[in-house]
């Protein structure tokens, strides 16, 4: 292992030869491994509560051998922790220690609650129309999106039953979870609340210029290679692009 012109040891390790011709690397403090290639994982002892750090030299890893009464990767938990004493997670749930006296349960599929004590009533997806399901005391509760109601959010709210949504004589059309105002000539906007001005904003695209030709009509003056349209009357639901 140790021979002239060949130095296998790294990190200032020293190659030492035995009488029989074999050798090894004598590592400086803070390094270990066959060639001193690993940082000593026990250099800064992470083991708490009197735990002993045990290094695995060849792997460069370490484990903690905990003192009586303590457990955990770093011996950070007392065996009097609720996860060990009362085993609070029910129905096959797994207890995770968060601090010396707090915990969190990971529940098996089909159970929910802080301690997995409830049957998950949301497992069958009872809530409709994109609503959110929560389980409380083995019962489900649905939080509905706007526009839906009912125990399972299965009923569409008819917004048109409430007068005043559409202004200036606009006709209310109920939609699933929403509604739409059918605009009358001369008005625009979601609630028919704005006066219609043919060229504001301009409906002409591709650089075309809009010119108002009447109270509700316009024409587009298009750039070369595009087609102009003739003076046009606004229809109730028209959303065309011109040029």
Automatic annotation (TrEMBL):
Disulfide bonds join 27-36, 47-64, 66-75, 107-116, 144-153. One of its GO terms (biological process) is system development. Residues 1-37, 38-76, 79-117, 118-154, 156-193, 195-232 form the EGF-like domain. It comes from the Eukaryota. This is cDNA FLJ55807, highly similar to Neurogenic locus notch homolog protein 2. GO terms for molecular function: calcium ion binding. GO terms for cellular component: extracellular region. Pfam families: EGF, EGF_CA. The keyword Transferase does not apply. Keywords: Disulfide bond, EGF-like domain, Repeat.
């Amino acid at each position: 292992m140790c021979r002239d012109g060949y130095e296998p040891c790294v990190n200032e390790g020293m190659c030492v030869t035995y009488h029989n011709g074999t050798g090894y690397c004598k590592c400086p403090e803070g390094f270990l491994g066959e060639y001193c290639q690993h940082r000593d994982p026990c250099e800064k002892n992470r083991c708490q509560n009197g735990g002993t750090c045990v290094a695995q030299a060849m792997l460069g890893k370490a484990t903690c051998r905990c003192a009586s009464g303590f457990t955990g990767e770093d011996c950070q938990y007392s065996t009097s922790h609720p996860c060990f004493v009362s085993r609070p997670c029910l129905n096959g749930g797994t207890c995770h220690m968060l601090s010396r006296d707090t915990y969190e349960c990971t529940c098996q599929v089909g159970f929910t609650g802080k301690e997995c004590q409830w049957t998950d009533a949301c497992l069958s997806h009872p809530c409709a129309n994109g609503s959110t399901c929560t389980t409380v005391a083995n019962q489900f509760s649905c939080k509905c999106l706007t526009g839906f109601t009912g125990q399972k959010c299965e009923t569409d709210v008819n917004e048109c039953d409430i007068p005043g949504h559409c202004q200036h004589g606009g006709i209310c059309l109920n939609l699933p979870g929403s509604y739409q105002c059918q605009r009358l000539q001369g008005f625009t906007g979601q609630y028919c609340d704005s006066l219609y001005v043919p060229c504001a904003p301009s409906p002409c695209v591709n650089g075309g210029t809009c010119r108002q030709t009447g109270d509700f009509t316009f024409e587009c003056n298009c750039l070369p290679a595009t087609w102009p349209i003739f003076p046009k009357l606004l229809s109730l639901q028209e959303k065309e692009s011109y040029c």
